Amino acid sequence: MFASRATHVELSGIRKMFEAAPSGAINLGLGEPDFQPPLHILEALERAVRGGMNKYGPTGGLPELRSAVAERLSRYAPVTPDQVLITTGATQALCATTLSLVDRGDEVLTPDPGFVLFAPHITLASGTPVFYKVRKNDAFQPRLDELSELVTPKTKAIIVNSPGNPTGGVLDRKTIKGIVEVAEDNDLLIISDEVYEPFVYEGRHETFLGTYDKLVYVNSFSKLFAMTGWRIGYLVAAPEIVKTLAKISYYFIACPPTPTQVAVLAGLRGPQDFVTHMVKEFHHRREMIVGLLSRIEGFDCPWPKGAFYTFPSFDFELTSEDLAFKILKAGVICTPGSAFGAGGEGHLRFSYANSRENIAKGVEIVSKVAQSLQ
Ligand SMILES: Cc1ncc(COP(=O)(O)O)c(C=O)c1O
């Protein structure tokens, strides 16, 4: 009954865990800030809805928001509004990008472990995902020689994600330069997912923006303003790419939601102390969760440099899915590393987008499960 594209992708391993969770389980599986958007943004949304901003808008997004995004990004590189496309989250930005730029038979290099959308989007576009490894011992930076060796005449693009989900790895300037060189040498597109841009705890965020012409830069307001349910993201690319992606987007979404765009605009124009406060809190929780997990025998917990996940490895004799299910039964939701690709096996992903109290309680339960396996 189903088209092959629908059956060639599986239910995401993150969703699987949520669907199996007992009620009352402590959620360390979350991929979203446990904060609410600040009041001035909520009020702007209310004003927008009450004021009649409830209609279709331009497919490319509200012009004022495109300008505001371009302005925000000028800290990294000059960006003009016609290089910006507003999307329904980074999810749709990534999907429109692969569907518009990846053809049947094209190969796309994508990180392993890597975020759950990347490979299925390539498959849905009838392309072939080719995985490059990112390893704990390399601080989750790809090895450039391995990346080059994976390039074939069919390779179309490289997907990069920094700060990274699930690893918390942050690409350094040198690695970014090296990846750009591989892309340049082989005339490849770079698709850079930087949705965790504000969440960097060591050093500063290094971007691909402004480093390469054949770049699709993807970002989102989901995490920045704690509004994952509002579905507003954006991408930046050359104007001719943006035009085609907007054309394709029309057939999927008609336009990004109007009222939430108005509210996001208020967020960009208003005070940014909410973001500073949220990132500071995540920084604190990072110290806490890594400290607690590191004390558990059998776990090796590297310091995530960014995002809000830890990705410890373990040396028990069972798969990450079996271990995650044992932990789930004991009352904590986490995500098996294998949900992010074969390279994630032997790891678990814990999100620290939960209260300090729940993190402490949750890791205590994980510790008991680990003891029972010794
Ligand atoms: C790396 C990465 N990219 C994209 C997304 C999707 O973000 P959005 O809510 O903007 O669709 C997520 C969400 O968890 C993510 O972790």
Fraction of residues in β-strands: 5-15%
User: What characterizes the major β-sheet?
Assistant: 7 strands, mixed
- Structural class given helices, strands, pairing? alpha/beta
Bound molecules: pyridoxal-5'-phosphate
Radius of gyration: 20 Å
Could you say what the CATH architecture of the largest domain is?
A: 3-Layer(aba) Sandwich
User: What is the CATH top level name of the largest domain?
Assistant: Alpha Beta
Give the terminus-to-terminus CA distance: 47 Å
How many structural domains in the coordinates?
Answer: 2
Look at the structure and give the mean pLDDT: 96
User: How many beta-strand runs?
Assistant: 14
CATH H-level homologous superfamily name of the largest domain: Type I PLP-dependent aspartate aminotransferase-like (Major domain)
Q: How does the overall form come out from the CA principal axes? A: globular
Secondary structure tally, helices: 13
Task: Describe the model.
It contains 13 helices and 14 strands. The longest helix is centred in the last third of the chain and has 22 residues, at 273-294. The chain folds into two domains: 4-37 and 273-373, Aspartate Aminotransferase, domain 1 (Alpha-Beta Complex), CATH 3.90.1150; 55-269, 3-Layer(aba) Sandwich (Aspartate Aminotransferase, domain 2). α5 (89-101) packs across α6 (118-124) and α11 runs parallel beside α13 (356-373). By secondary structure, the chain is of the alpha/beta class. β3, α6 (118-124) and β4 (128-133) form a beta-alpha-beta unit. The model has no long low-confidence stretch (mean pLDDT 96). Strands 2-8-7-6-5-3-4 form a seven-stranded mixed β-sheet, with helices on both faces. The protein binds pyridoxal-5'-phosphate. Residues 31, 89-91, 115, 161, 165, 193, 195, 220, 222, 228, 233 line the site of pyridoxal-5'-phosphate.
